[in-house]
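Sequence in, structure out.
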Amino acid sequence: MDDLPWQHDALDTMLGRADLPQALLLAGSKGIGKRTFAAALIAAMLCESPRPPGRACGACPSCEWLRAGSHPDFRLVSPQSESEGDGSKGTDETRPGTRKGSHQIAAEQVRMLADFVNLSAHRAGRKVVLISPAEAMNSFAANSLLKILEEPPGETTFLLLTHQSQRLLPTIRSRCQRLDMAAPPHAQAIAWLESQGVADASAALAYAGGAPLEALDAFRGNERSRRSSLLTPLCEPATLDVLGLAETLAKEEMPSLVSWLQKWVYDLIASRLARRIRYNVALIPAIERLGRAADISRLLAYQRTLAETQAVAGHPLNAQLLLERLFFDYAEIWNVGEGEIDGRA
């Protein structure tokens, strides 16, 4: 598994150590390549013919099994599956799971590791467990893992990948060696995105908050075009067809829609209060115009509404009704009444 350009030094340093930690916590924001780093590290640890400075050869039986997702000495624990895949088939650490609606790592998934960690390795080497994202463990799962880490089996290495380390039990954090991973330098991220064929890499990276893998995922998922179907109408709140827009977008994933709205409103507030725009850099003129005209108290209240909505966005009772309410509230920021909107719809 190849690492990303901005990870070369950190990976070489880790592989050059005389002994790897028994539990390693890879911490950092989403979309910067933690999963790719972990995959390269796992491949190197399990490889039977590593090449200097310890990288996986990619050709031995162990590397082939890992690539096929069937290595007997590796386990992946995630909300999406208990043992699917090996985390080495791509750079995407944000793709949706294969089991819709599963957002937690259950205790049973962690308990199933007991036999794995207590048996000898099939290939007479190391065994590796990847837990990703570690903060997805519910309290029972976290306590089950803690029991394993308290008496760690000598042949097993645990890699915990986290986007929000503060959500982990302090006792779990204390039993792991932590490696903080940062987003790459802007120029390096842009160059990498361009090498992946991403059009307008600068705007894509800005929208992803500096996270290049998230920008790549959005590009591959045609997110910019889908997002435009929301943001273009929002540029003209006085003529916003609330009912029509809600009907059009009701089949989109609600967490994504609310996230797009949150970033849009963030930019409106930032433009008004700080004269800067972070995410939607391709729409600066419209954002500046709307920011100047907005009722700032309503805009801030709407931001709070979106935060509350995001907490339940994964399972809305009626997506279209929820969107209608959000769009009506949005139009109200510019003192556009519901009756006026209906009259133009």
